Each structure stands twice: as C-alpha cells, then as structure tokens.
Amino acid sequence: MRIYFLIFGVLFLILSALLFFRRMRIIFYGASAIGTVLRIESRESEDSILHFPVISFVDNDGVQYTFTSTSGVALGKSPSDTKVLIRYSTSNPKIAYIANWRHMWGGPIAILFLGVTGIWAAIGHTAL
To answer: Where would you find the membrane-spanning parts of this chain (predicted)?
Structure first.
C-alpha cells in the first residue's frame, strides 16, 4: 500500500511543480488586463453548489477572450459586470487567471499538500 502512496505523492508533486511553473510564467511573461464577470456558472458538488465566474477581457492586441475561472466558491456569488484584474499568457491569451491569491496559487498549493501527504504516508511519520 505504501508504494501507491509514494507513486501518487510523487505524481502530485510533479503536477504541483508544473502548475507553479505555469503561474510563474504568467507572472513574469504574461500581461494584465481588466476583465468583466459576464455570468456565474454554478456546478453542483457533493454537498454544495460551487460558483465559477465567466470572465471576458481584451488583450493588448484588442482581441476579446472569454474564460471560466478554474476556482469556484461555495458561498456567495460575484455579481455580473464586476471588474476583476486578470493575468494572461501573451503567447496564448486563452490561458488566464483572476489575479488574486486564491485563483493563482490555491490549486498548486492544494496539490502540493496532497503530494507531501502521500509521500509522508508512504515513508511513515517515524522516518522524520
């Protein structure tokens, strides 16, 4: 059983590193824009409803893009027409994130935690 924890732990660490790298590329090589929340997509989870903002923005070349945030919230909704700061890839503006801590770093940190927990479970806490 420990080998499974180790394999999944390492895979989650690799995925976390890839997500961190992707976010850092957006920070260093991307651009900022002001986006507008067009609507909220609601998706049912196990015991709650998550709300994902759908955001439209115009890149530096004047082309309009729309994306759905990858991070949803269980409580409350952002009203339509709310303005939000976003970061996007200049080489592929379809890759965009709301420029706040939760949307940029919440996913990579959660996956990092899963990876560390998996490895810890595999090697055992007595090895520390």
So the answer is: 6-22, 104-123
